[in-house]
Structure formats: structure tokens, C-alpha cells
């Protein structure tokens, strides 16, 4: 098969490495890819939202499958674009329809969906500038801290958690009236704060049946002890040691099954990955968000634990054989530590040479913000390299990543030194 992977992060490198190991994989292309993906395929400099460019590339290269890494092209309707074109509709898109992608593209849509299908989530209401006064009243009924969510995609910045009622009202006004997040905050979901521990559950589905991938926990804040600004993710572990088989069974019965069945009932075509962000409140799972793609850096710990042929599994999503395929997961645990550029997630410099990538060790270096320049690999983003390791438990995997990340060096290299501190 000829496979195209859209995206340029550690997630795409990790998916690509697994796909490249399949005997079914003949050709592997990344658009745009990074300096790491060049070692396992070919990079084409195309934006993930340039559907016409992707169409031309797919036809020229005889692409059979497109794995969509980030959410943007899905929310923009890449699935429908391919499905509605007679030249393209044989190509398997790993990702849902435009309507399905609204599970991530609109928090209000996701909440309505969860209400309709009795899926446990935080108590909530949606407001616009027309009923902002009702929004203030709703806030008054809740307890601190207050959770405000911009309805649309806001580059991971659209969720605010505020301690005081005054601040919460003020921010609600900024979002609805002053368009703090542009059109993404023309609607705001206000919800009850859930106290508990967060984890992410991943599913692959063909729209009828589903398979549960390993779950993971990521570390989103920039600072040690989980403080400071939100980032794309500074590290992750799989499985989260605080959950067991019974908890996953509960998630399956109360969340995964109703979600897959709900999509069918609502006639929403959904195929590909589904990422369910949960908070475990006591022993009860509650959904805080759906994402319609894999997580980054969760992919860097989830995908390496898959023992089965991932490409073969994904092939089944289109040809009707998905439910018959096996999914075997390694008993080993995995951890990843993200090396980032100094200053991230705010201002940072790029273009520094990265040394040590060719060193052999018992970790995998998944590249993210990197590119090749004059024969060198240089930094090209905030998140630069995810160092993934295995271990018989999460602690030993984390320890191994910390040892091996010392092999890598670039100016401004920064990482959190406490991944797993809370486990
Ligand atoms: P989201 O973009 O919905 O994942 O929200 C970003 C982060 O905000 C999550 O990873 C949680 O840490 C936090 N969060 C979101 N919703 C809630 C909630 N209802 N209660 C507590 N924390 C939340
Ligand atoms: N690591 C969180 C995400 O991918 O959304």
C-alpha cells in the first residue's frame, strides 16, 4: 500500500514508524513531515489544509490511504472532500467525516452529543453574547474554580480555569463580547470543575465496531509540579498506573459503546481514531473532551506498545474486515519525555543544530519540531524531540528516557524533570 501521513509532529513520526514496519507498506510519504520522517519515508512540502495539493499528490503517487495526524484538516472536511470526488473515493481516509470531526471542532456539539446519548460529563451550559446575562447567573450557581471553554478550535488555548467569580465573569465577557478567541469564542461552554485525575483513552473504529488502544496520561503544563502555561504536552506515560481492567471496562460500557452507537444513531460517519479525554472522579469516568485524532505526545507511548500490524488494522477500516482483525498490545509500559525549545510555549528561537540523534541507545527519538538544513538536523518548533522508552513498569521507562535524553543536545534544550511525579 502507498500511505500518506499528514502532519509534522512526533505523533506523525511515531505513526509513520509503525506503518513503515508493516509488510503491506510499499511507499510512505509525509506532508509536510520533519527531519525524522525522512529516515522512514519521503517528505513533501505541503500544508495539511491544502486539499487540492493533497489530491494532486495522492493521484500522482497512487496513494491508497491517508492518515490524518492533526484535527484541522478533519474539521475542514478532508474526509468529505475525498469521499465526494470520484477520482479519490477509493482512498481510505483515517479520520472522520466533517460532521464527525465536530466532536472536537465544537465543544457545544460534543456536549449536545453527550447529553443525547447519556454519556457522563461535567454539568454545563452554552452561552452566546445574546444571553451573556444568563451566563453570569449560571456562573453564580457554580462553585470555584470556574471552567470556560471556547466552543471552536483555539489552538489548545480555549479552555480557561479561573478561581474567582469576578475573573470568570470578566473572561466570559472577553470571550463573548470582545472575541478573545475570534469566532471560536462566539459560543462559550461553562462547566462544572471536575476534581480528579486525568487520562486519555484511545479507540480505533470503522463506524461499526471498535478496538480499544492502550490508554495514556500526558503532562500538559510547562512547569514542574504541573504549574504554569498549558503546552501541547511535555511527556506521557502508558498505561496510567492508577487504572485497572475494571475501570477500562467501565469506560467501555459507559462511554465508548454509547459514543460509537450514538454516532451510528445520529448518522454521523466516523472512522479512524477517537481520543477521549477523561477525568476519573473517585472511580467514575467523566468525559472532558473528544478529539478526533491521536494525541501528541500520547501517540509516542501508545503506538509503540501496539504489537499487531497497525497498517493492516487500518486497512480494515475501509474494506469491511476491521472487526476480524487482532489488536495485540505489549505488556511493557512506555514513557516519553518531550525536549522543547527554551521559551516554549511562548516565544522561542529556532534553527539550532541538534547533536546526538544518531547515538544508539534503548530509547526511540521521535522527532517533532525539526528540519534538515545544510546537512544538519536543526530545531524548527517548540516541541523538538520526544524520547520514548519501554520498561517493565512506568517508573523504569521514565528513568530510561531521562538517561538517554542526555545523549541529545541543542541550544536552549529544556524538559520537565518530573514526568510521572504524581503516579
Ligand atoms: P480541554 O481542551 O477540554 O481538554 O481542556 C483543557 C484542560 O482543561 C484539560 O486537559 C483539563 O486539565 C482541564 N479541564 C477541562 N475541563 C475541565 C473540567 N470540567 N474540570 C476540570 N478540569 C477541566
Ligand atoms: N496531548 C494532548 C493533545 O494531543 O491534544
Tell me what you see in this structure.
The chain has 423 residues and is an alpha+beta fold. Among the domains are: 2-95, Rossmann fold; 123-192, ATP-grasp fold, A domain (Dna Ligase, domain 1, 2-Layer Sandwich), CATH 3.30.1490.20. Helix content is 27%, strand content 27%. It contains twelve helices and 23 strands. The protein has helices spanning 10-20, 51-61, 72-75, 78-83, 102-105, 107-116, 132-141, 165-176, 245-265, 299-302, 310-319, 394-404; strands at 2-7, 27-32, 42-43, 65-68, 92-94, 124-127, 146-150, 159-162, 188-191, 197-205, 210-212, 217-218, 221-223, 227-230, 235-238, 272-281, 284-291, 333-341, 364-367, 370-373, 376-379, 383-391, 413-414. Strand 7 (146-150) and strand 8 (159-162) form a beta hairpin. Helix 7 (132-141) runs antiparallel to helix 8. The chain starts with a strand and ends in a 9-residue tail after the last strand. Bound molecules: adenosine monophosphate and glycine. Glycine binds next to loops.
Amino acid at each position: 500500500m502507498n500511505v500518506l501521513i499528514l502532519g509534522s509532529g512526533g505523533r506523525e513520526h511515531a505513526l509513520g514508524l509503525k506503518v513503515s514496519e508493516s509488510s503491506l507498506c510499499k511507499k510512505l510519504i509525509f506532508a509536510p513531515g520533519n527531519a525524522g520522517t525522512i529516515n522512514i519515508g519521503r517528505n513533501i512540502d505541503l500544508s495539511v489544509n491544502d486539499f487540492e495539493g493533497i489530491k494532486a499528490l495522492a493521484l500522482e503517487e497512487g496513494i491508497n490511504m491517508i492518515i490524518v495526524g492533526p484535527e484541522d484538516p478533519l474539521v475542514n472536511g478532508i474526509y468529505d472532500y475525498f469521499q465526494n470526488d470520484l477520482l479519490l473515493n477509493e482512498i481510505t481516509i483515517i479520520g472522520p467525516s466533517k460532521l464527525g470531526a465536530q466532536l472536537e471542532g465544537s465543544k457545544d456539539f460534543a456536549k449536545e452529543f453527550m447529553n443525547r446519548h447519556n454519556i457522563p460529563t461535567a454539568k454545563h451550559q452554552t452561552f452566546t453574547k445574546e444571553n451573556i446575562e444568563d451566563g453570569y447567573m449560571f456562573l453564580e450557581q457554580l462553585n470555584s474554580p470556574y471552567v470556560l471553554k471556547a466552543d471552536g478550535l483555539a489552538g489548545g488555548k480555549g479552555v480557561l480555569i479561573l478561581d474567582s467569580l469576578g475573573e470568570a465573569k470578566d473572561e466570559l465577557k472577553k470571550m463573548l463580547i470582545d472575541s478573545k478567541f475570534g469566532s471560536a469564542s462566539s459560543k462559550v461552554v461553562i462547566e462544572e470543575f471536575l476534581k480528579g485525575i486525568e487520562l486519555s483513552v484511545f479507540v480505533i473504529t470503522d463506524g461499526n465496531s471498535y478496538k480499544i488502544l492502550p490508554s495514556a496520561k500526558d503532562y500538559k503544563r510547562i512547569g514542574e509540579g504541573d504549574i504554569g502555561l498549558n503546552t501541547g504536552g511535555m511527556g506521557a506515560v502508558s498505561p496510567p498506573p492508577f487504572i485497572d481492567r475494571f475501570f477500562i471496562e467501565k469506560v467501555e460500557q459507559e462511554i465508548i459503546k454509547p459514543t460509537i452507537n450514538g454516532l451510528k444513531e445520529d448518522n454521523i460517519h466516523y472512522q479512524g481514531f477517537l481520543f477521549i479525554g477523561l477525568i476519573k472522579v473517585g472511580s467514575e469516568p467523566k468525559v472532558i473532551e473528544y478529539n478526533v485524532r491521536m494525541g501528541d505526545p500520547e501517540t509516542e507511548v501508545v503506538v509503540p506498545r501496539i504489537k499487531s500490524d497497525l497498517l493492516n488494522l487500518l486497512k480494515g477500516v475501509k474494506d469491511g474486515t476491521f472487526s476480524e482483525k487482532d489488536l495485540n498490545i505489549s505488556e511493557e509500559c512506555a514513557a516519553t519525555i518531550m525536549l522543547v525549545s527554551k521559551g516554549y510555549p511562548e516565544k522561542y528561537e529556532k534553527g539550532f543544530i541538534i547533536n546526538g540523534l544518531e547515538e544508539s541507545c534503548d530509547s526511540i527519538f521521535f522527532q517533532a519540531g525539526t528540519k534538515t538544513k545544510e546537512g544538519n538536523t536543526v530545531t524548527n518548533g517548540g516541541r523538538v524531540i520526544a524520547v520514548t522508552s519501554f520498561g517493565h513498569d512506568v517508573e523504569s521507562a521514565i528513568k530510561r528516557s531521562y538517561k538517554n535524553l542526555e545523549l541529545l543536545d541543542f541550544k536552549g534544550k529544556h524538559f520537565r524533570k518530573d514526568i510521572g511525579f504524581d503516579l
